[in-house]
Amino acid sequence: MKEKIRSLWTERSNPRSERLDEASTLEILSLMNHEDVDVPFAVTLVLESLAHFVDGASLRLKAGGRLFYVGAGTSGRLGILDASECPPTFGTEPELVQGIIAGGNPAVFKAVEGAEDKESEGAKALIRKKLSKKDCVVGLSASGRTPFVLGALKYAKKKKALTAFVTCNPESTMLKSCDFGLPLDVGPEILSGSTRLKCGTGQKMILNMISTAIMIRLGRVKGNRMIDLDPKNDKLWERAKGLVMEALAVTEKTAEDLLKKAGGRARQAIESKMGKFRSK
Question: What is the location of CATH 1.10.8.1080 in the chain?
Fold first, then answer.
């Protein structure tokens, strides 16, 4: 097993950073910045498959399904981050998009050793969520071999949920087992094996695209505005007020009154004067 891990794509040594410990601070930062340029290109290569997944996932969510991100370590934390931002940004219920991390909530803040090493635990995590064929599961594993994630995806396939796999190892066998394989060949990290760097950046870009595009397909965006945002702080309240002012061409005072009557919901405030609308 140790030999197998050392041979993974994500464990490769980057020849451009072999003397990283001897570099100046500016050289270190410049090298990191230069290496990051490879990430958007790697994402470009999976856009077509990603689009098909988004379209399929959107249909399932419209029919009452849910979206789950499953990962361990950095990958798991990125999934939880993206899921947690959907309610305030798009006004969704917390259950619609959920992040699952090996080791549970404590692993968000502190590494839980060994939590990712059992496939059965990944399956159990989805069993607890009562996964059904209406749901969607996105597995996140930089190495492409994380047992917790593979177990979750295998269970999801068994339940006929829609599956996608995001990995930085294009040789992972799970890519062919899922409905949509999304391999990101970002090249070796400047710090060998530290997949929170380019691999993490690539996964975050994919997650941004998945959640944003799905919410647009679900009609939770008007033009390029977050019409369903949940204004639970001053910044979001001001943003919601601006949306109402712009859409209805009304004064700040009128917009604020309409928002209050609508319980802070910009969509409802606007529809109270314009009638219902939907994004295309």
Answer: 221-280
Best CA proximity match to 184, nearest among 12, 89, 45, 16: 45
The token pair that represents 142 in the structure block: 């930089």
Known catalytic residue: 119? no
- The residue annotated as part of the active site, out of 3, 27, 35, 116, is 116
Residues 184-187: contacts with CB under 8 Å, at least 24 apart: 184/39, 184/42, 184/43, 184/46, 185/9, 185/42, 185/45, 186/38, 186/39, 186/42, 187/14, 187/35, 187/38
- 95 carries an active-site annotation: no
pTM: 0.91
pLDDT tens column, 46-59: 999 999 999 999 99
| Given 22, 35, 48, 85, the catalytic residue | 85
93: pLDDT strictly greater than 50:
yes
Residue 152 to residue 133: CA distance in whole angstroms: 14
Six-digit token string for 231: 């204004």
What CATH code would you report for 221-280?
Answer: 1.10.8.1080
> What fold, for 46-186+195-217?
Rossmann fold (3.40.50)
> What is the model's pLDDT at position 77?
97
